[in-house]
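Hello again, I could really use a second opinion on something today. I've been staring at a protein lately and its backbone has me curious. Please have a think about how the structure follows from the sequence. I owe you a coffee for this, so here goes:
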Amino acid sequence: MPLDMNYPSPPIPQVNSASGKARVLIADEDRELVQTAERLFTQSGYECEICDSGDAVLSALKQRGADVIVIGLQIPGMGGLELLQQVRSRRPDVPLILLGVDPNPGTAMAAMRHGAFDYIAKPFTDDELNASVKRALDMSLLQRENRQLRQQLDMASVAAGFVAESPASKNILSIVRRVAPSRSTVLIEGESGTGKELVARLIHYWGQRADGPFVAVNCKAFAEGVVESELFGHEKGSFTGAIAARAGCFERASGGTLFLDEIAETGPDFQAKLLRVLEDGEVLRVGASKPRKVDVRIVAATNRTLRKEVANNRFRGDLYFRLNVIPIHIPPLRERPEDILPLARHFLDFHSTEAGRPISLTPEAERTLCSYNWPGNVRELENVIERAVVMSGAEQLTSDAFALDRGVEEPLETEATSMNGAGPAHATNGSLQDCLDRAAAVRIRAALESAKGNRALAAHELGVDRTTLYRLMKRLGLGQ
Protein backbone atom coordinates (compact mmCIF):
# COMPACT_ATOMS: atom_id res chain seq x y z
CA MET A 1 0.00 0.00 0.00
CA PRO A 2 1.13 3.59 -0.41
CA LEU A 3 2.83 5.14 2.57
CA ASP A 4 0.39 5.82 5.41
CA MET A 5 -0.58 9.43 5.90
CA ASN A 6 0.39 9.55 9.59
CA TYR A 7 3.48 11.60 8.81
CA PRO A 8 4.97 14.50 10.75
CA SER A 9 3.39 17.87 9.98
CA PRO A 10 5.56 20.78 8.84
CA PRO A 11 6.28 23.42 11.45
CA ILE A 12 3.24 25.58 12.24
CA PRO A 13 3.82 29.17 11.07
CA GLN A 14 4.95 31.28 14.00
CA VAL A 15 5.69 34.93 14.55
CA ASN A 16 9.37 35.87 14.57
CA SER A 17 9.56 36.50 18.32
CA ALA A 18 10.43 34.05 21.06
CA SER A 19 7.82 35.78 23.22
CA GLY A 20 5.07 34.78 20.80
CA LYS A 21 4.31 38.45 20.03
CA ALA A 22 4.37 39.87 16.52
CA ARG A 23 7.70 41.61 15.93
CA VAL A 24 7.86 45.06 14.32
CA LEU A 25 11.02 46.86 13.14
CA ILE A 26 10.82 50.65 12.81
CA ALA A 27 13.27 53.19 11.39
CA ASP A 28 12.76 56.87 10.53
CA GLU A 29 14.81 60.07 10.66
CA ASP A 30 12.17 61.63 12.95
CA ARG A 31 13.23 60.42 16.41
CA GLU A 32 10.06 61.65 18.11
CA LEU A 33 7.88 59.78 15.60
CA VAL A 34 9.89 56.60 16.19
CA GLN A 35 9.47 56.79 19.97
CA THR A 36 5.73 57.46 19.63
CA ALA A 37 5.37 54.50 17.27
CA GLU A 38 7.31 52.27 19.69
CA ARG A 39 4.89 53.12 22.54
CA LEU A 40 1.92 52.55 20.24
CA PHE A 41 3.13 49.14 19.08
CA THR A 42 4.03 48.04 22.61
CA GLN A 43 0.57 49.03 23.88
CA SER A 44 -0.95 47.07 21.00
CA GLY A 45 0.83 43.92 22.17
CA TYR A 46 3.66 43.88 19.63
CA GLU A 47 7.37 43.50 20.21
CA CYS A 48 9.11 46.54 18.73
CA GLU A 49 12.76 47.18 17.83
CA ILE A 50 14.04 50.63 16.81
CA CYS A 51 16.74 50.69 14.13
CA ASP A 52 18.87 53.79 13.52
CA SER A 53 19.83 53.04 9.89
CA GLY A 54 18.98 50.94 6.86
CA ASP A 55 21.89 48.61 7.58
CA ALA A 56 20.59 48.14 11.14
CA VAL A 57 17.20 47.13 9.73
CA LEU A 58 18.80 44.51 7.47
CA SER A 59 20.96 43.23 10.33
CA ALA A 60 17.98 42.92 12.71
CA LEU A 61 15.93 41.22 10.00
CA LYS A 62 18.67 38.66 9.38
CA GLN A 63 19.55 37.96 13.01
CA ARG A 64 16.22 38.26 14.83
CA GLY A 65 13.60 38.31 12.10
CA ALA A 66 10.50 40.49 11.77
CA ASP A 67 6.81 40.21 11.00
CA VAL A 68 6.38 43.81 9.79
CA ILE A 69 8.84 46.60 8.95
CA VAL A 70 7.90 50.30 9.20
CA ILE A 71 10.40 52.75 7.67
CA GLY A 72 10.54 56.34 6.52
CA LEU A 73 11.51 57.35 3.01
CA GLN A 74 14.49 59.21 4.51
CA ILE A 75 16.60 57.11 6.87
CA PRO A 76 20.36 57.18 7.53
CA GLY A 77 22.53 55.00 5.34
CA MET A 78 20.14 54.46 2.44
CA GLY A 79 16.82 55.72 1.15
CA GLY A 80 13.57 54.01 2.01
CA LEU A 81 13.02 52.74 -1.54
CA GLU A 82 16.52 51.26 -1.68
CA LEU A 83 15.95 49.54 1.66
CA LEU A 84 12.59 48.31 0.40
CA GLN A 85 14.31 46.62 -2.56
CA GLN A 86 16.92 45.08 -0.25
CA VAL A 87 14.23 43.66 2.03
CA ARG A 88 12.20 42.36 -0.90
CA SER A 89 15.21 40.52 -2.32
CA ARG A 90 16.07 38.92 1.04
CA ARG A 91 12.70 38.37 2.70
CA PRO A 92 9.85 38.90 0.23
CA ASP A 93 7.43 37.42 2.78
CA VAL A 94 7.88 40.31 5.25
CA PRO A 95 5.47 43.24 4.56
CA LEU A 96 6.99 46.72 4.63
CA ILE A 97 5.14 49.98 5.33
CA LEU A 98 6.63 53.23 4.02
CA LEU A 99 6.18 56.57 5.82
CA GLY A 100 6.48 59.70 3.66
CA VAL A 101 5.63 63.39 3.56
CA ASP A 102 4.05 63.47 0.08
CA PRO A 103 0.26 62.91 0.29
CA ASN A 104 -0.02 62.56 -3.50
CA PRO A 105 -1.75 59.24 -4.41
CA GLY A 106 0.81 58.81 -7.19
CA THR A 107 3.58 58.53 -4.59
CA ALA A 108 1.64 55.81 -2.79
CA MET A 109 1.11 53.92 -6.07
CA ALA A 110 4.83 54.16 -6.86
CA ALA A 111 5.69 52.75 -3.44
CA MET A 112 3.28 49.85 -4.01
CA ARG A 113 4.83 49.14 -7.41
CA HIS A 114 8.21 48.83 -5.69
CA GLY A 115 6.72 46.20 -3.36
CA ALA A 116 5.59 48.17 -0.30
CA PHE A 117 2.57 46.81 1.53
CA ASP A 118 1.29 50.32 2.32
CA TYR A 119 2.28 53.99 2.11
CA ILE A 120 1.19 56.42 4.85
CA ALA A 121 1.68 60.16 4.40
CA LYS A 122 2.73 62.29 7.37
CA PRO A 123 1.16 63.53 9.52
CA PHE A 124 -0.96 60.49 10.37
CA THR A 125 -2.92 59.37 13.43
CA ASP A 126 -2.08 56.50 15.73
CA ASP A 127 -5.17 54.68 14.51
CA GLU A 128 -4.04 54.93 10.88
CA LEU A 129 -0.60 53.49 11.65
CA ASN A 130 -1.97 50.78 13.95
CA ALA A 131 -4.60 49.73 11.39
CA SER A 132 -1.98 49.47 8.63
CA VAL A 133 0.31 47.29 10.79
CA LYS A 134 -2.63 45.05 11.75
CA ARG A 135 -3.60 44.57 8.09
CA ALA A 136 0.02 43.71 7.25
CA LEU A 137 0.18 41.16 10.07
CA ASP A 138 -3.14 39.61 9.02
CA MET A 139 -1.92 39.30 5.43
CA SER A 140 1.42 37.86 6.55
CA LEU A 141 -0.26 35.26 8.73
CA LEU A 142 -2.65 34.30 5.92
CA GLN A 143 0.26 33.87 3.52
CA ARG A 144 2.12 31.66 6.00
CA GLU A 145 -0.98 29.54 6.55
CA ASN A 146 -1.41 29.18 2.78
CA ARG A 147 2.21 28.11 2.47
CA GLN A 148 1.66 25.53 5.19
CA LEU A 149 -1.41 24.15 3.42
CA ARG A 150 0.51 23.94 0.15
CA GLN A 151 3.34 22.14 1.94
CA GLN A 152 0.90 19.67 3.47
CA LEU A 153 -0.57 18.99 0.04
CA ASP A 154 2.93 18.59 -1.39
CA MET A 155 3.80 16.22 1.44
CA ALA A 156 0.67 14.18 0.86
CA SER A 157 1.47 13.93 -2.84
CA VAL A 158 5.08 12.95 -2.21
CA ALA A 159 4.22 10.49 0.55
CA ALA A 160 1.48 8.85 -1.53
CA GLY A 161 4.09 8.01 -4.15
CA PHE A 162 6.25 6.07 -1.69
CA VAL A 163 5.12 2.45 -1.51
CA ALA A 164 6.41 0.56 1.51
CA GLU A 165 5.25 -3.06 1.36
CA SER A 166 8.60 -4.83 1.23
CA PRO A 167 10.82 -5.10 4.34
CA ALA A 168 13.53 -3.10 2.50
CA SER A 169 11.17 -0.21 1.76
CA LYS A 170 9.80 -0.19 5.30
CA ASN A 171 13.35 -0.02 6.62
CA ILE A 172 14.10 2.98 4.34
CA LEU A 173 10.97 4.68 5.60
CA SER A 174 12.01 4.09 9.19
CA ILE A 175 15.45 5.60 8.53
CA VAL A 176 13.92 8.65 6.82
CA ARG A 177 11.60 9.30 9.77
CA ARG A 178 14.56 9.25 12.17
CA VAL A 179 16.87 11.31 9.97
CA ALA A 180 14.48 14.00 8.72
CA PRO A 181 14.28 16.15 11.89
CA SER A 182 18.09 16.44 12.12
CA ARG A 183 20.41 18.75 10.17
CA SER A 184 22.73 15.89 9.15
CA THR A 185 23.93 15.51 5.57
CA VAL A 186 22.45 12.48 3.81
CA LEU A 187 23.92 10.38 0.98
CA ILE A 188 21.40 8.29 -0.99
CA GLU A 189 22.75 5.50 -3.20
CA GLY A 190 20.72 3.38 -5.60
CA GLU A 191 20.28 2.48 -9.25
CA SER A 192 18.68 4.94 -11.65
CA GLY A 193 14.93 5.04 -11.29
CA THR A 194 14.73 3.69 -7.73
CA GLY A 195 13.26 6.89 -6.28
CA LYS A 196 16.21 8.74 -4.78
CA GLU A 197 14.69 12.20 -5.28
CA LEU A 198 11.43 11.01 -3.72
CA VAL A 199 13.33 9.95 -0.59
CA ALA A 200 15.16 13.30 -0.58
CA ARG A 201 11.84 15.17 -0.69
CA LEU A 202 10.48 13.09 2.19
CA ILE A 203 13.56 14.01 4.24
CA HIS A 204 12.89 17.68 3.48
CA TYR A 205 9.13 17.69 4.11
CA TRP A 206 9.38 15.67 7.32
CA GLY A 207 12.16 17.86 8.70
CA GLN A 208 12.34 21.21 10.44
CA ARG A 209 13.06 22.91 7.10
CA ALA A 210 9.76 22.08 5.43
CA ASP A 211 8.90 25.79 5.40
CA GLY A 212 12.06 26.51 3.39
CA PRO A 213 12.85 25.77 -0.26
CA PHE A 214 13.72 22.39 -1.73
CA VAL A 215 16.17 22.98 -4.58
CA ALA A 216 17.04 19.98 -6.77
CA VAL A 217 20.20 20.16 -8.87
CA ASN A 218 21.44 17.69 -11.48
CA CYS A 219 25.21 17.93 -11.02
CA LYS A 220 25.86 16.19 -14.33
CA ALA A 221 24.19 19.05 -16.18
CA PHE A 222 26.81 21.61 -15.12
CA ALA A 223 29.35 22.55 -17.77
CA GLU A 224 32.83 23.06 -16.34
CA GLY A 225 32.87 26.77 -17.19
CA VAL A 226 29.68 27.65 -15.30
CA VAL A 227 29.99 25.48 -12.19
CA GLU A 228 31.01 28.32 -9.90
CA SER A 229 28.33 30.70 -11.17
CA GLU A 230 25.57 28.06 -10.92
CA LEU A 231 26.58 26.96 -7.44
CA PHE A 232 27.44 30.27 -5.85
CA GLY A 233 25.87 32.92 -8.10
CA HIS A 234 27.48 36.00 -9.61
CA GLU A 235 27.42 39.76 -9.40
CA LYS A 236 26.35 42.04 -12.23
CA GLY A 237 29.16 42.58 -14.74
CA SER A 238 31.38 39.86 -13.26
CA PHE A 239 31.72 38.25 -16.72
CA THR A 240 30.44 38.68 -20.24
CA GLY A 241 26.70 38.09 -20.22
CA ALA A 242 26.24 38.76 -16.49
CA ILE A 243 23.72 41.55 -17.06
CA ALA A 244 22.26 41.20 -13.56
CA ALA A 245 23.24 39.74 -10.21
CA ARG A 246 22.04 36.18 -9.71
CA ALA A 247 21.86 33.96 -6.64
CA GLY A 248 23.36 30.48 -6.96
CA CYS A 249 21.93 27.14 -5.89
CA PHE A 250 23.17 27.45 -2.32
CA GLU A 251 21.62 30.87 -1.77
CA ARG A 252 18.33 29.81 -3.34
CA ALA A 253 18.22 26.81 -1.00
CA SER A 254 19.19 28.79 2.12
CA GLY A 255 16.89 27.89 4.98
CA GLY A 256 15.91 24.68 3.21
CA THR A 257 17.38 21.65 1.48
CA LEU A 258 19.75 21.41 -1.50
CA PHE A 259 19.45 18.08 -3.33
CA LEU A 260 22.59 17.29 -5.34
CA ASP A 261 21.66 14.49 -7.72
CA GLU A 262 24.26 12.45 -9.62
CA ILE A 263 27.03 13.73 -7.37
CA ALA A 264 29.45 11.04 -8.64
CA GLU A 265 29.37 12.58 -12.12
CA THR A 266 31.07 15.79 -11.01
CA GLY A 267 34.65 16.73 -11.83
CA PRO A 268 37.52 17.72 -9.52
CA ASP A 269 36.77 21.47 -9.78
CA PHE A 270 33.16 21.00 -8.72
CA GLN A 271 34.14 18.68 -5.87
CA ALA A 272 36.75 21.10 -4.51
CA LYS A 273 34.32 24.04 -4.49
CA LEU A 274 31.55 21.99 -2.92
CA LEU A 275 33.89 20.79 -0.17
CA ARG A 276 34.85 24.37 0.65
CA VAL A 277 31.21 25.42 1.05
CA LEU A 278 30.46 22.42 3.28
CA GLU A 279 33.44 23.26 5.47
CA ASP A 280 32.93 27.05 5.69
CA GLY A 281 29.16 27.38 5.44
CA GLU A 282 29.49 30.36 3.11
CA VAL A 283 29.65 31.11 -0.60
CA LEU A 284 31.44 33.76 -2.60
CA ARG A 285 29.59 34.96 -5.68
CA VAL A 286 31.65 35.34 -8.82
CA GLY A 287 32.82 38.95 -8.88
CA ALA A 288 31.99 39.59 -5.20
CA SER A 289 34.45 40.64 -2.51
CA LYS A 290 32.57 39.40 0.56
CA PRO A 291 31.33 35.85 1.18
CA ARG A 292 27.71 35.20 2.11
CA LYS A 293 26.64 32.84 4.86
CA VAL A 294 24.25 30.09 3.79
CA ASP A 295 22.17 27.78 5.94
CA VAL A 296 21.57 24.72 3.79
CA ARG A 297 20.98 21.04 4.46
CA ILE A 298 22.68 18.86 1.85
CA VAL A 299 21.14 15.65 0.51
CA ALA A 300 23.26 14.04 -2.20
CA ALA A 301 22.43 11.08 -4.44
CA THR A 302 24.28 8.80 -6.83
CA ASN A 303 23.62 5.68 -8.87
CA ARG A 304 27.18 4.53 -8.25
CA THR A 305 28.90 3.14 -5.17
CA LEU A 306 30.74 6.24 -4.03
CA ARG A 307 33.23 4.33 -1.88
CA LYS A 308 34.40 2.48 -5.01
CA GLU A 309 34.68 5.80 -6.84
CA VAL A 310 36.97 7.04 -4.06
CA ALA A 311 39.08 3.86 -4.25
CA ASN A 312 39.46 4.38 -8.00
CA ASN A 313 40.49 8.05 -7.50
CA ARG A 314 37.41 9.36 -9.30
CA PHE A 315 35.94 11.06 -6.23
CA ARG A 316 37.55 12.98 -3.38
CA GLY A 317 37.76 10.98 -0.17
CA ASP A 318 37.39 14.05 2.07
CA LEU A 319 34.22 15.09 0.25
CA TYR A 320 32.86 11.55 0.45
CA PHE A 321 33.19 11.53 4.24
CA ARG A 322 31.55 14.97 4.42
CA LEU A 323 28.55 13.66 2.47
CA ASN A 324 28.29 10.16 3.91
CA VAL A 325 27.11 11.20 7.38
CA ILE A 326 23.77 9.37 7.04
CA PRO A 327 23.91 6.74 4.26
CA ILE A 328 20.67 5.42 2.73
CA HIS A 329 20.75 2.61 0.16
CA ILE A 330 17.67 2.04 -1.99
CA PRO A 331 17.59 -1.53 -3.38
CA PRO A 332 16.54 -2.05 -7.01
CA LEU A 333 12.92 -2.99 -7.62
CA ARG A 334 13.84 -6.58 -8.54
CA GLU A 335 15.10 -7.06 -4.97
CA ARG A 336 11.82 -5.89 -3.41
CA PRO A 337 9.15 -7.71 -5.47
CA GLU A 338 6.50 -7.07 -2.80
CA ASP A 339 6.45 -3.45 -3.99
CA ILE A 340 5.79 -4.17 -7.68
CA LEU A 341 2.01 -4.66 -7.67
CA PRO A 342 1.25 -1.94 -5.07
CA LEU A 343 3.35 0.48 -7.13
CA ALA A 344 1.66 -0.62 -10.36
CA ARG A 345 -1.79 -0.11 -8.83
CA HIS A 346 -0.75 3.29 -7.49
CA PHE A 347 0.45 4.42 -10.93
CA LEU A 348 -2.61 2.89 -12.57
CA ASP A 349 -4.96 4.82 -10.26
CA PHE A 350 -3.17 8.06 -11.08
CA HIS A 351 -2.99 7.63 -14.87
CA SER A 352 -6.47 6.14 -15.25
CA THR A 353 -7.85 9.15 -13.37
CA GLU A 354 -6.02 11.43 -15.79
CA ALA A 355 -7.41 9.38 -18.70
CA GLY A 356 -10.92 9.81 -17.29
CA ARG A 357 -11.87 6.13 -17.18
CA PRO A 358 -11.50 3.28 -14.66
CA ILE A 359 -8.88 0.71 -15.66
CA SER A 360 -7.78 -2.43 -13.84
CA LEU A 361 -5.17 -5.16 -14.24
CA THR A 362 -6.04 -8.71 -15.20
CA PRO A 363 -4.47 -11.54 -13.13
CA GLU A 364 -2.39 -12.38 -16.21
CA ALA A 365 -1.13 -8.79 -16.36
CA GLU A 366 -0.20 -8.85 -12.68
CA ARG A 367 1.76 -12.07 -13.18
CA THR A 368 3.59 -10.49 -16.10
CA LEU A 369 4.54 -7.43 -14.08
CA CYS A 370 5.82 -9.58 -11.21
CA SER A 371 7.90 -11.82 -13.49
CA TYR A 372 9.70 -8.94 -15.23
CA ASN A 373 13.20 -7.93 -14.07
CA TRP A 374 12.60 -4.11 -14.18
CA PRO A 375 16.09 -2.92 -15.15
CA GLY A 376 14.75 0.66 -15.14
CA ASN A 377 13.25 0.19 -11.66
CA VAL A 378 10.28 2.24 -10.45
CA ARG A 379 10.65 4.82 -13.20
CA GLU A 380 10.33 2.11 -15.87
CA LEU A 381 7.29 0.63 -14.10
CA GLU A 382 5.49 3.97 -14.10
CA ASN A 383 6.36 4.55 -17.76
CA VAL A 384 5.05 1.10 -18.69
CA ILE A 385 1.76 1.68 -16.84
CA GLU A 386 1.33 5.16 -18.33
CA ARG A 387 2.01 3.87 -21.84
CA ALA A 388 -0.44 1.00 -21.39
CA VAL A 389 -3.18 3.34 -20.17
CA VAL A 390 -2.65 5.76 -23.06
CA MET A 391 -2.36 3.12 -25.79
CA SER A 392 -5.04 0.68 -24.64
CA GLY A 393 -8.72 1.41 -25.05
CA ALA A 394 -9.72 -1.50 -22.84
CA GLU A 395 -11.06 -1.32 -19.30
CA GLN A 396 -8.68 -4.09 -18.26
CA LEU A 397 -4.98 -4.24 -19.08
CA THR A 398 -3.64 -7.58 -20.21
CA SER A 399 0.04 -8.52 -20.46
CA ASP A 400 0.24 -7.62 -24.15
CA ALA A 401 -0.58 -3.99 -23.27
CA PHE A 402 2.78 -3.48 -21.56
CA ALA A 403 5.18 -4.05 -24.47
CA LEU A 404 7.99 -4.92 -22.06
CA ASP A 405 11.53 -4.89 -23.43
CA ARG A 406 12.96 -8.30 -22.57
CA GLY A 407 16.14 -7.90 -24.57
CA VAL A 408 17.15 -10.04 -27.53
CA GLU A 409 14.78 -12.96 -28.00
CA GLU A 410 15.68 -16.29 -29.58
CA PRO A 411 15.07 -16.44 -33.37
CA LEU A 412 11.37 -16.87 -33.90
CA GLU A 413 11.87 -19.20 -36.86
CA THR A 414 13.68 -21.66 -34.60
CA GLU A 415 10.82 -21.44 -32.11
CA ALA A 416 8.29 -22.06 -34.84
CA THR A 417 10.15 -25.15 -35.98
CA SER A 418 10.38 -26.31 -32.37
CA MET A 419 6.67 -25.77 -31.67
CA ASN A 420 5.74 -27.57 -34.89
CA GLY A 421 7.47 -30.70 -33.69
CA ALA A 422 10.83 -30.46 -35.38
CA GLY A 423 12.55 -30.63 -31.99
CA PRO A 424 12.33 -29.19 -28.48
CA ALA A 425 15.10 -26.61 -29.15
CA HIS A 426 14.22 -23.76 -26.73
CA ALA A 427 10.54 -24.42 -26.04
CA THR A 428 11.15 -24.96 -22.35
CA ASN A 429 14.01 -22.48 -21.85
CA GLY A 430 13.67 -19.15 -20.05
CA SER A 431 10.89 -17.80 -17.88
CA LEU A 432 7.22 -18.62 -18.24
CA GLN A 433 6.70 -15.29 -20.01
CA ASP A 434 9.48 -16.14 -22.49
CA CYS A 435 7.73 -19.41 -23.33
CA LEU A 436 4.39 -17.62 -23.68
CA ASP A 437 5.94 -15.02 -25.98
CA ARG A 438 7.41 -17.72 -28.20
CA ALA A 439 4.09 -19.55 -28.37
CA ALA A 440 2.29 -16.26 -29.16
CA ALA A 441 4.72 -15.56 -32.00
CA VAL A 442 4.05 -18.97 -33.53
CA ARG A 443 0.27 -18.51 -33.27
CA ILE A 444 0.37 -15.03 -34.80
CA ARG A 445 2.51 -16.24 -37.71
CA ALA A 446 0.06 -19.05 -38.35
CA ALA A 447 -2.91 -16.66 -38.30
CA LEU A 448 -1.20 -14.25 -40.69
CA GLU A 449 -0.34 -17.09 -43.04
CA SER A 450 -3.92 -18.38 -42.92
CA ALA A 451 -5.25 -14.87 -43.66
CA LYS A 452 -2.70 -14.43 -46.48
CA GLY A 453 -1.23 -11.42 -44.72
CA ASN A 454 -4.54 -9.65 -44.07
CA ARG A 455 -4.06 -8.36 -40.54
CA ALA A 456 -7.72 -7.52 -39.96
CA LEU A 457 -8.68 -11.15 -40.70
CA ALA A 458 -5.75 -12.43 -38.63
CA ALA A 459 -6.81 -10.28 -35.67
CA HIS A 460 -10.38 -11.60 -35.99
CA GLU A 461 -9.11 -15.19 -36.02
CA LEU A 462 -6.96 -14.50 -32.94
CA GLY A 463 -9.82 -12.83 -31.08
CA VAL A 464 -8.08 -9.47 -30.60
CA ASP A 465 -8.52 -6.04 -32.13
CA ARG A 466 -6.21 -4.90 -34.90
CA THR A 467 -4.39 -2.37 -32.66
CA THR A 468 -3.53 -5.12 -30.18
CA LEU A 469 -2.25 -7.32 -33.00
CA TYR A 470 0.02 -4.53 -34.27
CA ARG A 471 1.34 -3.97 -30.75
CA LEU A 472 2.02 -7.67 -30.27
CA MET A 473 3.77 -7.93 -33.62
CA LYS A 474 6.00 -4.99 -32.75
CA ARG A 475 6.86 -6.35 -29.32
CA LEU A 476 7.60 -9.85 -30.61
CA GLY A 477 9.69 -8.57 -33.51
CA LEU A 478 7.39 -9.84 -36.26
CA GLY A 479 7.52 -8.09 -39.60
CA GLN A 480 5.41 -4.94 -39.94
User: Anything to note?
Assistant: The mean pLDDT is 82.
